[in-house]
Amino acid sequence: MIFDTDILIWVQRGSEKAARLIERTESRYLSIQSYMELLQGAKNKMHHKYVKDFICDFEFSILPLTENIGHRALIYVEEYTLSSNMRAGDAIIAATAVENNMPLSSSNIKHFKAIKELELKTFKP
Hints:
Blueprint: E1 2-3, H1 5-12, H2 16-24, E2 29-31, H3 32-40, H4 45-57, E3 61-63, H5 67-84, H6 88-99, E4 104-106, H7 109-112, E5 120-122
Parallel strand pairs: 1-4, 2-3, 4-5
């Protein structure tokens, strides 16, 4: 399963429910977009190291931005920006899940609900 950035942010905030979800998931994936968002959100070097260690310790696989993912993300932005306020980062994360034929776990359902081919697993904090 691919995890949206928000799930890992919930863990950082101390959510045991989010931590259990990650622990129970056998194969853990992140879009490179989510990984960059987590690193960008780090407040200092110690927090930056925490993020990197967390990704390593829980054996997340980071999925790269491919040409197909970029193309699909562009289509999502073209199709859904005006109607659903689709942002580029969310489009890349959704496209990564669809292109890799994996479900996406997120609590930000409104960011992704317009994308019909996306298998979305709702996380309720």
